[in-house]
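Re: weekly structure request thread

Next one in the queue (282 aa):
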Amino acid sequence: MDEERPDEGNPQDENSIPGSNADNEMSEPEPIQNEIMEVHHHPDLKHKKKRWTEYFLEFLMIFLAVTLGFLAENLREHISEKERAEVFAQSLIADFKADTSSLHQLIFYTEEKMRRIDSLDKNLSATRSRTNDSLLYNTILYIISTFQFDNINGTYEQIKNSGSMRFFKQATVNNLNRYDAAADKLKLMEEWENKFLYERLIPQTQEMINYKVIDDLRNRGHIEHEMYIRNANNLSADILINQADIIKNLRRRQSVQQKVLLQKAEEIITELTSEFHIKHSE
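Done, posted below.
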């Protein structure tokens, strides 16, 4: 019998057939086993409850920061206000020094005017001569003239209107207000005198003397015109003397007020120089 041969038509062994499933399975890469993938996870933060002391410390720090800021601002404002107060004080002292100088002159003028009025009766009744008439004209010049107090209150008004009185001690503020009220009172007295002068006394003297001589005395210091006395009868003389006496009484009251103002001005200067340590120079 013929020797059996393998059937050529039969498929070959799977192990020997290229491209077979076995080969395919062998050619596929084996999966990587146990590969470790490092993944970084944030730790699970759990909310930790604060103790009351921690809340208190936080509050205390915020409170201290706000307080220190507030104190620093107040200190800055205090320094600024102190500097402004010193400027105002120096200006006030300058104003009151000018006022004291004016008041000294005014007091001297008032006393001289009252003394001249006292001599009017004697000069009117004296024998007419150039010397006596010259004395009479000089006396009448004093009587019809006026010297008023013009206080320098610009700084005071600025302080009052700007609300800066708080920069000064209450005692100083009180004295400033009293001085201003006393100055207003003196001005009112001066207005009374001026009204009487222009409405009564000056018209009376115009009927009796030559006003060109008055102009000579005021502007030149010597007399160039005739010194006549008209209507020098007892009635005219008596009217003039009575009117001059009214002026004297008004001036006497002004003299008291002038001295009050002078005293207050000197007190204020002393208070300001002491309060703000400002060197007082005459």
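The two ends are 165 Å apart (CA to CA). Residues 76 and 82 are 10 Å apart (CA to CA).
Next request, please.
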